[in-house]
């Protein structure tokens, strides 16, 4: 199937009645969950995975993509109204969004965020459509050694996924590696970390770990902060009108950060958080009046909102074309692909064009839905922040337990859910980042598989990893990607 025919198939899938309905559901659910402080796109996708069971993979993944970019935008609402970012990617949004809200311009701030998000999302989808096939055509020639190099390069993003100590991020990744080895070795039949328990012979399901580390751990955090009344105060959204001068101020940041955000999103480990911060800093440095930033600047709000939404689409390039998640959120999204029986990678565009192009085509529709949804309805949608905390906690626990039990109908998995929930809560308490854990859990299995396949092909000769130019280049990049941040950190301390 040619590219043009594949694109038409994708648009046909996305713009079918079923596709439109699930895009709207995904965007709505993602926006709702993203608005809740602490429940970002990772938790939103993890909670929604059980709902996709039995669905057609293309419509299920279109909905999950809608949840992703809906949650990214939803996070900006709580950043602007409450100064409580729903996700790390909208932290920079609060720098100028919250001051605008305090000045009685909350409606205007939300309108600026909606338009900037729409611009960044739409431009990046066009770039995604142009670049993804090129990357896929290169990646289709990858063999097991090259895949091993790719997985290795993906794992070097672990340091980037840490928000604090790199050592803690590496410890978190090691525990993730240990978790993925639990079960019977498919090649030798040897039991690994099962302790003779038959329930562990098939390993631990990804959903148990994702829901435990993110959703249940968030519940623990919400219970601890149950007496924080500041998060439940009612907000006045006000007018949404943007003047001609303000729109003129938005044009520059939106046009620049659409490209910057997309290319940063493509890089493994960069993602929406780094894109939004770089976008904010870049616009502040080139602004004629940088002193206005941090005090309710239109440019200061438009820049990070454009960049984080553009990065969201950019993150789909390595995920769809190479099967490599570039961030913690896309790592969970990769799990959703696997749960639905879809293996993203070079062959996805050839074997399942309705899924590959359907997801991309649905983003055009999703961005329009986001704009239509957020401009007139955000004043009403924001009332979800007034849901009583006990009811919110009960709903998250209920969805998580139903989702895990529906996989295997095993009470043992529910115990494991609680165990990983406690582990996730303790990791947050002691500042151990969870994304490196989930990234290592997902990539660890693929890394081991490609490593074993390569050695089987070469009869145990390790030189196979250095003979292929692609694998050699990727391994060198992996080593450099791992060493340079450590050298930079040492130089900074010196």
From TrEMBL:
Keywords: Membrane, Transmembrane, Transmembrane helix
Natural source organism: Salinicoccus bachuensis
Protein name per UniProt: Tripartite tricarboxylate transporter permease
DUF112 domain ranges (all copies): 20-439
Keyword Membrane on entry: yes
Record InterPro entries: DUF112_TM
Signal peptide start-end: none
TM annotation in the entry: 20-49, 61-82, 109-132, 138-159, 166-184, 204-224, 259-282, 322-343, 355-381, 387-407, 414-442, 462-487
UniProt entry tagged with the keyword Cell wall biogenesis/degradation: no
């Amino acid at each position: 199937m040619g590219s043009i025919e594949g694109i038409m198939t994708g648009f046909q899938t996305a713009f079918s009645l079923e596709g439109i309905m699930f895009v709207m559901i995904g965007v709505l659910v993602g926006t709702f969950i993203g608005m809740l402080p602490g429940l970002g796109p990772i938790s939103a996708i993890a909670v929604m995975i059980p709902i996709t069971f039995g669905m057609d993979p293309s419509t299920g993944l279109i909905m999950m993509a809608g949840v992703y970019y809906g949650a990214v935008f939803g996070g900006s609402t709580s950043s602007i109204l409450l100064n409580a970012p729903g996700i790390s990617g909208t932290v920079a949004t609060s720098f100028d969004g919250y001051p605008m809200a305090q000045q009685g311009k909350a409606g205007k701030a939300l309108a600026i965020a909606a338009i900037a998000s729409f611009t960044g999302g739409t431009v990046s989808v066009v770039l995604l459509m142009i670049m993804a096939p090129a990357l896929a055509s290169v990646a289709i020639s990858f063999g097991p050694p090259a895949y091993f190099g790719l997985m290795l390069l993906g794992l070097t993003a672990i340091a980037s996924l840490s928000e604090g100590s790199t050592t803690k991020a590496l410890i978190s990744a090691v525990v993730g590696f240990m978790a993925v080895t639990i079960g019977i070795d498919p090649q030798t039949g040897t039991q690994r970390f099962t302790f003779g328990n038959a329930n562990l012979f098939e390993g631990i399901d990804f959903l148990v770990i994702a829901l435990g580390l993110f959703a249940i751990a968030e519940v623990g955090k919400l219970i601890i902060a149950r007496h924080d009344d500041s998060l439940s105060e009612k907000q006045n959204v006000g007018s949404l009108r943007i003047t001609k001068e303000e729109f003129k101020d938005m044009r520059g940041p939106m046009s620049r950060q659409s490209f910057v955000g997309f290319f940063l999103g493509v890089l493994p480990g960069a993602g929406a958080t780094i894109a939004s911060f770089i976008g904010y800093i870049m616009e502040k440095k080139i602004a004629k009046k940088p002193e206005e930033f941090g005090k309710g600047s239109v440019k200061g709000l438009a820049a990070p909102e454009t960049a984080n939404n553009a990065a969201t689409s950019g993150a789909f390039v390595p995920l769809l074309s190479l099967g490599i998640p570039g961030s913690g959120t896309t790592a969970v999204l990769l799990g959703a692909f696997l749960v639905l029986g879809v293996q993203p990678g070079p062959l996805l565009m050839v074997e399942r064009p309705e899924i590959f192009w359907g997801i991309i085509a649905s983003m055009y529709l999703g961005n329009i839905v986001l704009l239509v949804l957020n401009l007139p309805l955000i004043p009403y949608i924001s009332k979800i922040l007034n849901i009583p905390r006990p009811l919110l906690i009960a709903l998250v626990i209920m969805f998580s337990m139903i989702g895990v039990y529906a996989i295997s109908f095993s009470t043992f998995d529910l115990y494991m859910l609680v165990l990983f929930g406690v582990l996730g809560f303790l990791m947050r308490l002691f500042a151990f980042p969870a994304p490196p854990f989930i990234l290592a859990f997902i990539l660890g299995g693929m890394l081991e598989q490609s490593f074993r396949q390569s050695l089987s092909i070469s009869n145990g000769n390790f030189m196979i990893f250095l003979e292929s130019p692609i694998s050699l280049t990727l391994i060198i990049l992996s080593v450099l990607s791992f060493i340079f941040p450590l050298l930079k950190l040492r130089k900074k301390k010196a």
